[in-house]
């Protein structure tokens, strides 16, 4: 029998370190951050003085000298330090790739302590997680309590320790056979992304946008004002800063949870999902920027593509031009401002929600480009209620 293609899957679990373990984790992060900045300075200096580009291998060779000169690095796993060099090398490769492509380059920057929040064991033991699933072994740190809220499967490839606010997480990246595609449903859907409603489907389903950031704005304002009054470097300021971070983290988790649920429902119910290819970066520079960022369209589409790929579904992006101005039924173009939420076609008299009309146009544009998809996907969407003018 033919083996299914292997894929990488990440599992994220909460860690509950002791006070001593938490201090060791924080120290490891700090030392990795300093090493990253030192290696970045070394690369910059080598190029300025001698026109020489250092590689990750060049910098990894010098790690024994770093440990000899700075004894505190003896307490950090050697492979974790090597991964810092690889991480910096990846940043430079991305920089040169963007320069070559003519995009905004983004030269690698020095990282502050709050901007370096993870370190990785690139070759962890396959028995890193204890048999009872209650501890994970982190070399040079020890057995740390872990909460396996769901099982993981496959060969363990990397183990990353990540700090989020005042909480610690372990991310286990495993290699496993690709899951079997979901059974075909014979259904296709177009989705329009909005700020009043997060998603409007061509089937007439409207998913509310809870506006998590706006809902938390009053609490954030109080917490941020409290932070601004605290003396820099004081313990009270650290506590106030942690309180602000917790609120932002809660908003992020609420938004991610909604995105996962919406994406999963779309993938389970449809073989083809069509959406607009929006320039979200440009939209974040308009007056709607706060609403666009609060809705998190980019995050939703990323999760949708990832779940669709795993389930064997097809996700198609289409040009968004005139999707809300063309009648899905007769094709007549009716131009109006964004404030008009009801679409009234003067060609055939159709009256329906503007976003619903756009979702059906999105699906209609996507269908011709997916001729190789199973014919059962081509089923037409549910027709909306139409009122014709006299």
Tell me about this structure.
The protein is of the alpha+beta class. It folds into two domains: 11-151, no CATH class; 188-210 and 249-378, 2-Layer Sandwich (Nucleotidyltransferase, domain 5), CATH 3.30.420. Helix content is 41%, strand content 19%. The strands form three sheets. A six-stranded antiparallel β-sheet has the order 2-5-6-1-4-3. Strand 12 and strand 13 (351-353) form a beta hairpin. The protein is globular and about 80 Å long. The model is unreliable at 375-390 (pLDDT under 50).
Overall structural domain count: 2
The CATH topology of the largest domain is what? Nucleotidyltransferase, domain 5
Number of helices: 11
Share of residues in helices? 40-55%
CATH classification class of the largest domain: Alpha Beta
The CATH level-2 architecture of the largest domain is identified as: 2-Layer Sandwich
Mean pLDDT: 89
Specify Rg, calculated over alpha carbons. Answer: 26 Å
The helix/strand series, from N terminus to C terminus, equals EHHHHEEEEEEEEHHHEHHHEEEH
Shape: globular
The tally of strands reads 13
Instruction: Assess the beta-strand content as a share of residues.
Output: 15-25%
Distance linking N and C termini: 65 Å
């Amino acid at each position: 029998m033919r083996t299914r293609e292997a894929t990488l899957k990440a599992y994220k679990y909460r860690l509950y370190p002791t006070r001593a373990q938490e201090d060791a984790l924080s120290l490891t992060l700090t030392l990795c951050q300093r090493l990253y900045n030192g290696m970045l300075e070394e690369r910059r200096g080598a190029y300025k003085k001698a026109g020489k580009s250092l590689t990750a291998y060049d910098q990894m060779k010098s790690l024994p000298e770093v440990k000899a000169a700075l004894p505190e690095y003896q307490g950090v796993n050697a492979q974790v330090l090597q991964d810092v060099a690889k991480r910096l090398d990846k940043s430079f490769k991305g920089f040169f790739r963007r320069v070559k492509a003519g995009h905004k380059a983004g030269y690698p920057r020095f990282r502050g302590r709050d901007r370096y929040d993870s370190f990785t064991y690139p070759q962890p033991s396959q028995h890193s997680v204890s048999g009872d699933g209650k501890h994970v072994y982190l070399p040079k740190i020890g057995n740390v309590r872990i909460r396996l809220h769901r099982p993981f499967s496959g060969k363990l490839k990397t183990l990353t320790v990540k700090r989020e606010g005042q909480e610690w997480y372990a991310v286990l990246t495993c290699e496993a056979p690709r899951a079997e595609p979901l059974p075909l449903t014979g259904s296709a859907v177009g989705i329009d992304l909005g700020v009043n409603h997060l998603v409007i489907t061509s089937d007439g389903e409207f998913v509310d946008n809870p506006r998590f950031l706006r809902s938390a704005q009053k609490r954030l304002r109080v917490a941020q004002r409290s932070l601004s009054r605290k003396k820099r470097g004081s313990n009270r300021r650290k506590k106030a800063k942690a309180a602000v971070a917790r609120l932002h983290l809660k908003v992020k988790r609420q938004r991610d949870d909604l995105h996962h649920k919406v994406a999963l429902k779309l993938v389970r119910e449809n073989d083809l999902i069509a959406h607009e290819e929006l320039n979200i970066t440009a939209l974040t520079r308009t007056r709607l920027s706060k609403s666009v960022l609060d809705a998190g369209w980019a995050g939703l589409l990323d999760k949708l593509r990832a779940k669709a790929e795993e389930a064997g579904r097809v996700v198609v992006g289409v040009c968004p031009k005139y999707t809300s101005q063309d009648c899905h039924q007769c094709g007549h173009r009716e131009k109006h401002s964004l404030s008009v939420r009801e679409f009234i076609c003067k060609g055939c008299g159709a009256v329906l929600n503007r976003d619903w009309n756009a979702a059906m146009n999105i699906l209609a544009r996507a269908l011709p480009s997916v001729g190789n998809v199973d014919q059962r996907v081509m089923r037409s969407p549910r027709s909306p209620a139409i009122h014709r003018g006299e």
